[in-house]
Amino acid sequence: MKAFGVPTDRVPEWIASAGSLTRCDLEDFTSISFNLKQAVQKNAGRRIRIVTDVISPLLVLNPQPTMYQYWSRLLGDLKQSDCVLLAPALGLGTGPCALA
Q: What does the alpha-carbon distance between residue 81 and residue 42 come to, in Å, rounded to a whole number?
């Protein structure tokens, strides 16, 4: 986390398919959006970083035009809250998200 300039005194909040309090279900991309927006609202007033590895799996599981529209809308909403989104285009994981 130090490599990304994230203070180590704050523990990341994970949104994952397993092992976290908040679930990430790749079959339900609207819940991913809802959970990310909830986390941003919970951290209002703080600049946060969102690191996600769900773009590639969502593009494989859903029609491409739907996902472009989904991500455009979600990114627009997240920009208004002054958070940083790190999202590798070719993720290979099961789709976790981390908030720091």
A: 11
48: closest CA among 11, 73, 82, 4? Answer: 82
Average pLDDT on 75-98 reads: 67
Q: DSSP class of residue 12?
A: P
Q: Cβ of 57: how many Cβ atoms within 10 Å?
A: 16
Please determine, for residue 71, whether its predicted confidence score (pLDDT) is greater than 60.
yes
Q: What is the domain extent for residue 90?
A: 2-99
> How many domains, in total, are found in the chain?
1
Return all residues near 83 (Cβ < 8 A) that are at least 6 apart: 40, 47, 48, 49, 50
What confidence score (pLDDT) does residue 100 get?
Answer: 45
Q: For 22, what's the count of Cα atoms within 13 Å in the CB-facing half-sphere?
A: 18
